[in-house]
Design brief:
alpha/beta, Rossmann fold, 9-stranded mixed β-sheet, 12 helices, 9 strands, 40% helix
């Protein structure tokens, strides 16, 4: 959905109702929330939490599969997608994202939900759980880690494997690049926009990051289209906060059913990070996909959807159906 001037948009199609609205946070920043609801669906709401620089590309197939039975809430982090860029760039942080999520849930009167996170969304979920554990019925953690992602980006697939040149280079040069993107944003922005709108990042990802036999270009290209429209300084500030985030201490505190999905060829979050989480979270299941990469949700959508459905049926069998969100009753904050 492209950005609109009105605060609330609605589209009716067949038995579905879609709503896009912006909800004001405490500091005045307006956060965009998209709600997908089939009339009569009474399954527990599913909250979708994106990765770094994302506005929803990873959830395409999950939404299609689960929307007949569940209300689905997908929101954009501040500075991402259709959400506002905050006046104070320092509010772009993992802790603020978690507070924003709580405000969104309060506004929509959602008392409990299933929280799905991809990539950075995994650590965002951990941060949100520490803030409001009572809102979590279950967690689904897809292709993400729990702390300091720069330490494991393009590191070895084995826990004690040899150091890699790409990982060492990223740890050394990323902080300098991030500072430059923020301090010299006017210089960097046209370069950033041109680069992300080109074929180069897709071809590079296809060669170094993805399973080329399973990826479909039209499924991934929206990610780069979004990046081309995003402010480079916002991406840098988000990545900077993400790189310093540590949620390890939260893992053992999670008392809700948790499904962890790991890709065996994930260059961003090596699979042993998922094994760490599986061991640390008392009530967790682990789905390991040997040829999965960081884009496993769009490489293996059928497998993930079926496994998540099985997980919810088995782990939340006694959870009563909840009333679907009444979009007509929601008031948009001014």
């Amino acid at each position: 959905m492209t950005k609109k001037t009105k605060s609330e948009l609605k589209l009716h199609r067949s038995n579905y109702e879609f709503s896009g609205q912006k909800i004001a946070m405490e500091d005045g920043t307006e956060i965009f929330v998209r709600i997908v609801k089939k009339k009569g669906a009474n399954g527990i709401p599913i909250i979708l939490n994106d990765g770094l620089g994302c506005d929803g590309y990873a959830w395409k197939y999950l939404i299609e599969y689960f929307e007949p039975r569940h209300s689905i809430i997908h929101w954009h982090y501040r500075g991402h997608g259709n959400s506002d860029v905050p006046r104070n760039l320092n509010t772009i942080s993992m802790k603020t994202f978690a507070k924003d999520l709580k405000t969104v849930l309060d506004h929509l009167h959602i008392e409990q939900a299933v929280f799905c996170g991809h990539s950075m969304g995994v650590q965002l979920i951990l941060e949100a759980y520490s803030l409001m554990p009572e809102r979590f019925a279950a967690l689904a953690l897809l292709c993400g880690g729990y702390q300091y992602p720069l330490q494991t980006w393009h590191a070895s697939f084995e826990r004690d494997g040899k150091k890699t040149l790409m990982n060492e280079g990223m740890k050394r040069f990323f902080p300098q690049l991030a500072r430059s993107l923020i301090a010299h944003s006017l210089l960097w922005q046209p370069i950033w926009k041109h680069l992300m709108a080109s074929e180069f990042p897709y071809k590079a990802a296809l060669r170094y990051e993805l399973n080329s036999r399973r990826i479909v270009k039209n499924d991934l290209f929206p990610y780069f289209e979004h990046l081309s429209k995003m402010q480079a300084r916002v991406f840098a500030q988000t990545a900077n906060s993400f790189s310093k985030h540590d949620g390890k201490h939260i893992l053992a505190k999670i008392k809700r059913p948790t499904l962890i999905v790991a890709g065996g060829r994930d260059t961003f979050s090596p699979p042993w990070l998922s094994l760490d989480m599986h061991k640390a979270i008392p009530s967790s299941d682990l789905l390991y996909i040997p040829d999965g990469t960081h884009c496993t949700p769009i490489e293996h959508p059928e497998l993930i959807n079926l496994r998540l459905e099985k997980f919810l049926n088995e782990r939340l069998p006694s959870l009563p159906a909840v009333s679907p969100i009444n979009l007509r009753s929601i008031k948009v904050a001014s």
